[in-house]
Amino acid sequence: MSLGDAVLLEREDHVARITLNQPDRKNALSSAISDGLIEALDELEGSDARVIVIQGAGGAFCAGGDVERMVEGIEGDTPADERARALERSTTELFGRLVRFTIPTVAAIDGPAVGAGANLALACDVQLASDRAVFGFVFRQVGLSLDAGTSYLLPRVVGENVARELALTGDIFGADRAEEIGLVNHVYPEDEFDEEVDAFLEKIVSGPPIALRHANRLIGEGLEKSFEQALADEAYAQGIVFDTDDHEEGVRAFLEDRDAEFEGR
Question: Which fold has domain 209-255?
């Protein structure tokens, strides 16, 4: 389906693909793309999708913030504090929603992912890149500090020292360095990228969806908790999963030495 043409949503075999579709703007986070992403997440909430892929059309993942909106802000008469509050609302609505989304999310990064576009990738649960992907937290290049969750997401993934370096220098770097510092999980050759992404997605789709959603949520919450709280929350989640048909199927398949067929029940 088309979400105003700026964002496309396709669903097949429990895989949902959200495509940023303004390639002439390198899929920068325009209002249309931001609204389309939120609408796509609304559409998928509670669906039978087992994994969501976010990708960009036309050789770019996402080129960050919308410079046209920055120009409007400079030339307009809206006070800076009002613009800041509007930014907080918009980034919370999109990035806050994505970080805590119930269905596992995968960023398929084929081309530039810079500024807020890099954070869009980081807000997903897993990051897969082609060898032509490039990254950069380039807010300083337009005279800005950090937004879109950089200060929360980036140090959790690459560590505080590297996060400071990337933010202070605004360096643009390639997929090899991104993999080296842990910014992405895997880098694949460009001509094999789609095939490798599909193979990775199949690993998630073939798993028990209820159990994996709980596992994904627990890991996302883990750094915010004490060890004792983590143990208690894991036990509570297992209590829910113990009662699923998928758990019974998984145990029987193990005992019968066959692949389990999980149905999400």
Answer: Lyase 2-enoyl-coa Hydratase; Chain  A, domain 2 (1.10.12)
Q: Which three-class secondary structure state does DSSP give residue 51?
A: strand
Is 56's pLDDT higher than 90? yes
Q: Both tokens of residue 92?
A: 């919370």
What is the rounded distance in angstroms from the CA atom of residue 140 to the CA atom of residue 162? 16
The domain 2-205: what is its CATH number? 3.90.226.10
Q: How much is the pTM? A: 0.87
Cα–Cα distance for residue pair 252/154, rounded to 1 Å: 41
Q: Kindly tell me the burial class for residue 149, based on how many C-beta atoms sit within 10 Å of its own C-beta (0-12, 13-18, 19 or more).
A: buried
Q: Show the CA angle centred on residue 136, arms to residues 135 and 140, nearest 5°.
A: 165
